[in-house]
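Dear colleague,

Thank you for sharing your sequence with our group. We've completed the structure prediction you requested, and as agreed, I am returning the results in plain text so they can be pasted directly into your records. Please verify that the sequence below matches your submission; if there's any discrepancy, let me know and we will rerun it promptly.
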Amino acid sequence: MGRLLVHDVFYDGKDAFPLVMVGNVLEANRRWDIGKEVIKCISKDFPGTRLVRPKVEPAVGAALLAWNYLIEQYQQEL
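Please find the predicted structure tokens below.
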């Protein structure tokens, strides 16, 4: 199902697209970085995948995304 979603919605076979990974389970420890393994596996089917590990909490990222959208809408109305 994930493969279908990525292919139909995000990936046109040409451009890169971001894959945002959050959560403590994806953080690297000294011995193993599961995030690298996940991106390696996904990159086999979707070479345009670009890993993004946010530096802020997801709620802050969502607020910034919404703010940017509102600014763009406002600028289009001018």
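Summary note from our side: The beta strands are 17-20, 49-52.

Kind regards,
the structure core
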